[in-house]
Amino acid sequence: MLEGKDIILASRKYAVEDRPRSWRVLISTTILLFLTSLGGIINFHIIPQLICAILTGLLITRFFILYHDYLHKAILQHSGFARTLFTLLGLFILAPNSIWKRSHDYHHTHNSKLYTASIGSFPLVTKKEYLQGTRTERRLYLFVRHPFTILFGYFFAFLWGFCIRTLIKSADKHMDALVALVFHFGVAAAVYFTLGLQSLLIGFAIPSFMYGAMGSYLFYAQHNFPDAKFKSKQDWDYSFAALHSSSYMKMSKIMHWFTGNIGYHHIHHVNAKIPFYKLPLVYKEMPELQHPGTTSLMPWDIYKCLRIKVWDHEENKMIGLREIHKAMREAKKYALVKNRVFMTSSSDNTEEDINLG
Q1: pTM assigned to the model
Q2: Same domain, 216 and 348
Q3: Is 306 found in the same domain as 234?
Q4: Distance CA 75, CA 27 (A)
Q5: How many domains does the structure of the chain reveal?
Q6: Residue 266 and residue 174 share a domain
Q7: Which percentage of the chain shows pLDDT scores above 70?
Q8: How far is CA 353 from the centre of its chain?
Q9: Cβ 213 vs Cβ 259: under 8 Å
Q10: Which domain holds residue 148?
Q11: Residues 236, 352: one domain?
Q12: 112 vs 103, 245, 247, CA distance in Å?
C-alpha cells in the first residue's frame, strides 16, 4: 500500500483532462440550467415552476463544481468561451474569480492546519483557545459555525463573506466583488420588473437560497466531520491533511451527479488537478483512498457534523458544546479550589506572623 507523497505521485496519471468529455459536461449542464431557469421564472403553473426552481438550485451547484475545477486548471483551459461562461457564473453566484481563487488556493495549502488564518474555510480553534477567549469572541465563533448561519449561506458566505466584506477590506484588489453585486441584483431586478414578484421569489430566490445552503454545508462538512484530524503548523503534512482531514461524503448517484462528485473530497485534496468526472475512477482503482473518514447527507450524519465545534488536543478529536461546557465547569471548579487553597495558605501565614510578633 502506498503512503504519503507516493499516493500523490500515483494520482498524477489521472490528472489529465478528457477534453471532449469536459465540453459535453459543460454544454449539457448549461442547456439544462437554461431550461430549468426559464421554467422557474415563467409563471405558467406554480407546481412545475417550483420543481424547475429546485432543479435550478441543484444545477447551479453542479455548475459551481465545473467553475471550481476550471479555476484549479483541471478542465477547459485556454478556451475563451469557457472563461467567459465561468466568469459570468462566478459573478452571478457572488463568488467572483479573484476572490474564490485566492481564498480557495489558500485553503488547499492550509487545510487542517491549526493556528492559521481561516481564509477560505470555517474558523477552527482548539478547546484551550476557546476557553481562553472572551465571551464575545466565543459567541462570534459559535455564530459563524452555527447551523442557521450555514443554512443561510447565501447571505453569510456568498453575499457578505465573498462580496460585501471583501469590498470593505480590500476593494482595490477585488473590484469584481462590486461587479458581482451589480450583476446579481441586476438580474434579480430584471426578473422582477419583467415577470413579477412570483418569478423573483420562485425562479430567483429559491435557487439562490439552495445553492447558498448546499455550497456552505458541503464545504463545512468536507472538513468538519467527527473523524477529521488537525495538526499544528510544524507537524502539518499535505498528504496527511488530504487523507485524514478531508471527508468522503456518501451520496446517491443522482446527488453525486448534481454535486459534481465533490463528495470524493479527500481525492480532490490529494490532487486538485484531477477532473471531477474522474474522481470515482480514482476511488475505485486506488485502494489507499478507499478508507477515508466518511459522512453523508443523512440527518444523523448532518447532526454529527454540525454539533462539533473545537479541536481537543487531549482527546485528539473534535468535540461539541456539551464537552466544552463540561471543560468550562471543571476549569471554574479548579480555579475555585485553587483560590481556596491560596486563601487558606495566606490565612495560615498571617496567623504565623501574628504569633511570631
Answers
A1: 0.90
A2: no
A3: yes
A4: 13
A5: 2
A6: yes
A7: 92
A8: 63
A9: no
A10: 5-313
A11: no
A12: 15, 6, 12
Q: What is the pLDDT of residues 293-318, one digit of tens each?
A: 999 999 999 999 999 999 999 999 99
Question: Would you state the pLDDT for residue 342?
Answer: 54
Cα separation, 182 vs 175, in Å, equals 11
Residue carrying C-alpha cell 504519503? 4
Q: Which pLDDT band holds residue 356 (cuts at 50, 70, 90)?
A: very low
- Among 78-82, 194-198, 306-310, 327-331, where is mean pLDDT lowest? 327-331
Same structural domain, 104 and 187 = yes
